[in-house]
């Protein structure tokens, strides 16, 4: 239900295979924790997933899996709108309109494009380049106040602010200027095999991330093998990036402060800490995994939620697009 007194939250996630604890701690968990506080819209961004090669079957299956991941994590479709981007064509339409107020140079500066295209600019899709404009459209189409995301999305939200402001000054007040909601903890969960890189689902080494669907044995093995820093003290420090990352994961899943954990493991070494960390992660993910398995066994549940979400998001998007078209002089002649 739309409660105008509450701030509007919008966030999105790509349906690209399994989600990992970085997606959970950096984004989904905060969506759930703040669910009561805000008026929420969460979007499975299947159009964004087209920017890298995929197949129809994969994208379709991943979309349902992502819906079940979000539902199993605790998003309640009665309280929040959950829908699939491609079900609301206004996202793609607004993206084109906004590309006229986005500068080529702004897109060239996006670090995610540079990272994902690497030295291969000739062969990546043009969609990978224009992707941030679609993300801006996602956000500002719903008069969003707050965008809860991980640190890696900060630059894209800043672009959304700039584009919304530019549109407003050119065409008159039309869009709310959104703000990023990035938490101090969990916003940048690092890879288990290289604590200088962020945990990423596109990483070729599956031991570098903990998938939300990993079995207890897999979780334990990955944590045991996670790289550590030199020395043996369980402390978070700038020269101990691996331990800082593992302590951060422990702290968020167990709900206790890093200082308290450091104290608990004084003189105990990495072995005991890692054994307990594995237990903490397994225990925290067990209820999620049970609910996820039930939802995966009955895909009709997700399909119903997504149909309802598309109707609710679609109504808001259509109303906003009418205003945008009028402001831009795009008169309608189709009857
Ligand atoms: P995506 O699908 O890559 O990631 C989804 C969310 O997970 C966060 N995240 C992380 N947080 C902490 N540590 C990590 N290692 C980590 N890896 C990922 C991301 O910051 C994100 O919040 N472009 C977006 C999807 C998107 C979107 C939007 C987000 C499309 N439209 C509108 C917000 C608003 C993306 O690819 O996220």
Q: Uncertain runs with pLDDT below 50, 5 residues or more? A: none
Query: What would the principal axes of the Cα set say about the shape?
Result: globular
User: In percent terms, what proportion of residues is strand?
Assistant: 5-15%
CATH topology assignment of the largest domain: Rossmann fold
Series of secondary-structure elements, N-terminal to C-terminal: EHEHEHHHHEHEHHHHH
Number of continuous helical runs: 12
User: Which CATH class of the largest domain applies here?
Assistant: Alpha Beta
CATH architecture verdict of the largest domain = 3-Layer(aba) Sandwich
Q: What class would the helix/strand composition place it in? A: mainly alpha
First-to-last CA distance: 31 Å
What percentage of residues falls in helices of 4 or more residues?
Answer: 40-55%
In this entry the ligands are:
tryptophanyl-5'AMP
């Amino acid at each position: 239900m739309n409660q105008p007194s509450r701030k509007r939250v919008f966030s999105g996630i790509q349906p690209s295979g399994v989600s990992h604890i970085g997606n959970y701690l950096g984004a989904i968990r905060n969506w759930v924790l703040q669910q009561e506080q805000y008026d929420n819209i969460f979007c499975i961004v299947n159009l964004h997933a087209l920017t890298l090669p995929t197949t129809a079957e994969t994208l379709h299956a991943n979309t349902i899996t992502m819906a079940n991941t979000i539902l199993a994590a605790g998003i309640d479709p009665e309280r929040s709108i959950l829908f699939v981007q491609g079900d609301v064509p206004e996202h793609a339409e607004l993206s084109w309109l906004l590309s006229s107020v986005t500068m080529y140079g702004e897109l060239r500066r996006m670090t995610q494009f540079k990272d994902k295209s690497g030295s291969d600019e000739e062969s990546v899709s043009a969609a990978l380049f224009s992707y941030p404009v679609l993300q801006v459209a996602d956000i500002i189409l719903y008069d969003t106040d707050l965008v809860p995301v991980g640190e890696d999305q900060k630059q894209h939200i800043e672009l959304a602010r700039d584009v919304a402001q530019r549109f407003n000054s050119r065409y008159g007040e039309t869009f709310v200027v959104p703000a990023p909601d990035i938490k101090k903890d969990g916003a940048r969960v690092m890879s288990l095999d290289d604590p200088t890189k962020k945990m990423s689902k596109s990483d070729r080494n599956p031991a570098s991330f903990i998938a939300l669907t990993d079995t207890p044995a897999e979780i334990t093995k990955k944590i045991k093998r996670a790289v550590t820093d030199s020395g043996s003290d369980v402390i978070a420090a700038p020269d101990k990036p691996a331990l800082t990352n593992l302590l951060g994961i422990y702290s968020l899943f167990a709900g206790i402060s890093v200082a308290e954990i450091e104290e608990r493991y004084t003189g105990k070494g990495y072995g005991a800490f890692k054994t307990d960390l594995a237990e903490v992660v397994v225990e925290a993910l067990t209820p999620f995994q049970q609910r996820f398995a039930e939802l995966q066994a009955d895909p009709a549940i997700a399909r119903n939620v997504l149909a309802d979400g598309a109707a609710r998001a679609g109504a808001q998007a259509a109303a906003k697009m009418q205003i945008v078209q009028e402001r831009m002089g795009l008169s309608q002649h189709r009857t």
